[in-house]
Amino acid sequence: MEWTRESRYKKYSEWDAETLLKLQAQATASKYQMSYHIRPQSGLLNDPNGFSYFNDEYHVFYQSYPFGAVHGLKSWVHLTSPDLVHWKNLGLAINADTKYDSHGAYSGSARVIDDKLFLMYTGNHRSKEWVRYPYQIGAIMDKDNNITKLDKPMIEPVDHITEHFRDPQLLKHRDEYFVILGAQDAETKTGKISLFRSKDLKNWQDLGYLDFTEEEMGYMVECPNLVFVDDQPVLIFCPQGLDKKVANYENIYPNMYIVGSDIRLDKAKFNTNQKAPLNLDDGFDVYATQAFNAPNGKAYAISWIGLPDISYPTDSENWANCLSQVKELSVVDGELYQRPVPAMASLREEGTLVRSEEVFDGQQIVHSAASKHYELKLDLTAGQNGNLFLAANKDLSQGIEIKFSTADDAFLTVDRSKAGIPFAEDYGTTRTIALPANKQLSLDIFVDGSVCEIFVNNGRHTLTLRFFAPDGNNKIAFISDKKLQYTGTYWNMKNI
After folding, report:
1. Residue 262 annotated as catalytic
2. Distance of CA 23 to CAs 18, 30, 42, 66, 143, Å?
3. Which DSSP symbol is given to 211?
């Protein structure tokens, strides 16, 4: 259908049930569908929200527009999990049904307060002249997952910030509450992180902008997120329009992080020894990452696998995007590591050992008929060069190509130029990371339908990508000038 402003912002109650059921069936039947990632039942999925632990289970919400692969009237969908892997979809949780969120329930966060889960999110309101007014809204969820919105916004629009004022993260330090928000300064039109303080969640003091870098952060900062990892503050955020002289990135918009030495929220100061922000994910399709500290003290993160202003091949099937698997965070030598949570292993079916095979017809075959949903762990010895193909055809002329060296010039490059339906080519078809010279390379690769997540060297790097391969492209194989030395395990993965 042709998406007009009127159709995008039509109330959910004005859509008929038959249309929604057809869209859900279409998404489920897609050959590109995921089985162990959170995906939309229909329509568009984007930012993860309200990632938290409450009432003896984990919670995550995601922004949803269930009627098409477009950005329309946004709501929140709610999921719960006992282990950060097996997720139960509880359906619509926050609808755009008040004056203050009349044109969409946008991103936000959650934290436990007084035995309830307090949600804070941005309500998108438009005037008749289509002027946007962003309101920061509060809502309370009880132990039966019933949600009640507060009558009035917690924070209203402020004069020194443009209409781009959103994505609140609610924090608590000692006896005070703080909120950080993505913002665009009204005078300079530059990206900022706005900071507010309150003792009672009702009266808020504007502390100005968080001082976390001397560099200009483009024209907008989205999805700011503060989490403590191994007792160090880590700031995760999405700068839009960032000068590539400040930090290297290739995606349309990056998702970045800074590891801090300390933070003084009351002084709006984040101290760091890091010279510039770093890419949170070195792949193609990660954005809007949200992290939180669980009661066990560990830090967990989940991301939107998708990017703003990018079209994906499943748009034509009326659904788009998914969430990443949950990753456990740690800081090693000042750098952020991301690893699969232990419960991911519960999805494994009986494993098949992988070892260095003889070269046949120029290939070392790892699996001649892999499923669309698997995990592959590989260890490659030092001093080698080669190419690993995933989701490939018989002669390896198509597939995800991972070029690597574990010699003096150690590197890893992921190339999706021949992996299937092309998309987002304006932002390149390869991503490359440097590796330590003459060291073993360890890869933990997860393939799920049209998603690939690659963990490098125990989480030192992650590279995430979408790909849309033809039917029958299910070969995994190496090619090299000489026989490569490697060991590993292949598992088919269960549906969550």
Report:
1. no
2. 9, 11, 6, 8, 31
3. B
Average pLDDT over the chain, rounded to an integer: 97
Taken in order 307, 309, 313, 315, the sign of the CA dihedral is positive
**Residue that is written with structure tokens 């003896």 in the block:** 56
**Predicted pLDDT at 152:** 97
Q: Give the C-alpha distances (Å, rounded to integers) separating 366 from 29, 354, 358, 477.
A: 29, 7, 11, 5
Phi, psi dihedral angles at 46 (to 5 degrees)? -135, -130
Contact 478, 363 (CB under 8 A): yes
Q: What are phi and psi of 253, to 5 degrees?
A: -135, 135
pLDDT tens readout for residues 91-134: 999 999 999 999 999 999 999 999 999 999 999 999 999 999 99
427-445: pLDDT as tens digits: 999 999 999 999 999 999 9
DSSP state of 334: T
Element (H, E) at 123: strand 116-126
The single residue of 47, 167, 281, 448 carrying the catalytic annotation is 47
* Distance linking the first and last C-alpha atoms of the chain: 32
Distances (CA, A) of 315 to 71, 198, 390, 417: 11, 42, 24, 19
> Model confidence over 297-319: pLDDT tens digits?
999 999 999 999 999 999 999 99
Report the 10 Å Cβ neighbour count for 203: 9
pTM of the model: 0.97
Strand partners, 211: 269
Separation CA 212–CA 49 (nearest Å): 23
Tokens of 477: 């194989």
Residue 271 pLDDT greater than 90, yes or no: yes
Q: How many CB atoms lie within 10 A of CB 408?
A: 8
Choose among 363, 329, 311: nearest CA to 479. 363
- 169 touches 109 (CB < 8 A): yes
Close Cβ partners of 327 (under 8 Å, ≥ 6 residues apart): 300, 301, 302, 338, 339, 340, 341, 459, 462
| Secondary structure (DSSP) of 66-89 | TTSSS--S-EEEEEEESSSSS-EE
Other Cβ atoms closer than 10 A to 362: 11
Q: Are 468 and 447 in contact (CB under 8 A)?
A: no
- Distance in angstroms (rounded) separating the CA atoms of residues 81 and 60: 9
